[in-house]
Amino acid sequence: MRKLFLLPLALLLFTHITKAQFYKSFLPSPAFSDSLAKVVLDFRFNFKAIQGEKLSSRDNMDIYRSKVSIPGAAHSIIYRSHSVEDTTACFQSVMYSGDNYNEAVKVYRNTFRLVKKSRMRWVDKSAVSFSGELEEPDESIRFTMSFLKPDLIDNAYHDFFAEVEMTSSLEGWEVRLNLHNKRNDMEE
């Protein structure tokens, strides 16, 4: 009788543990979601709170190190335009840089999935997530980009997007996560 009781209990426990591990492997880590939330929240302040030391300047743009980095990124920076017409900033994390196309595709898809599956706690304590469709990469095309839009009603985020992009150059492939304001001509 005791064996009859222990067997179902052991199966139930095993199922519960493996199910949790299975789902855990598909969900972003709390560190990923927390870092993403910090960047998204600071967008309303044009990324000023997460802006670190100035790295360089180009044309009408200054480049700063970000105090917040997305887990898995080689580095994260903030591009800040300082022209009279445009004072916006863009957060960028380089998620992959190398010459392996298959690895770049894997990182591109995974980054998209992690952003889409992240759940962030908003200032009003509501849950915020991103939605969008993955644009599948093609090795014969040097550039692929997927857009994700947060489900926010806040006007400051009307044109805010997460972009996951995969580009090819002479040095190889690069996958970047960009968070910034971008006018979506398709909505007009």
Written overview of the protein:
With 188 residues, the protein is of the alpha+beta class. Helices cover 28% and strands 35% of the residues. It contains 3 helices and 10 strands. It has helices at residues 2-24, 30-42, 101-117; strands at 51-58, 61-66, 75-81, 89-98, 120-121, 127-128, 130-131, 143-150, 160-169, 172-181. The protein has an 8-stranded antiparallel beta sheet, with helices on one face.
Brief description of this entry?
This protein has 188 residues and is of the alpha+beta class.
Q: What is the H/E string?
A: HHEEEEHEEEEEE
Strand content: 25-35%
- Counting DSSP H or I runs of 4 or more residues, the number of helices is 3
Structural class label: alpha+beta
**Alpha-carbon Rg, integer:** 20 Å
Mean pLDDT across the residues is: 85
Q: How many β-strands, per DSSP?
A: 10
Describe the strand arrangement of the main beta sheet, using strand numbers: 1-2-3-4-10-9-8-7
Shape: globular
Q: Helix amount, in percent?
A: 25-40%
- Amino- and carboxy-terminal Cα gap: 69 Å
Q: How would you name the oligomeric state of the polypeptide chains in this document?
A: single chain
Largest sheet: 8 strands, antiparallel
Low-confidence stretches at least 5 residues in length (pLDDT < 50)? Answer: 18-25, 184-188
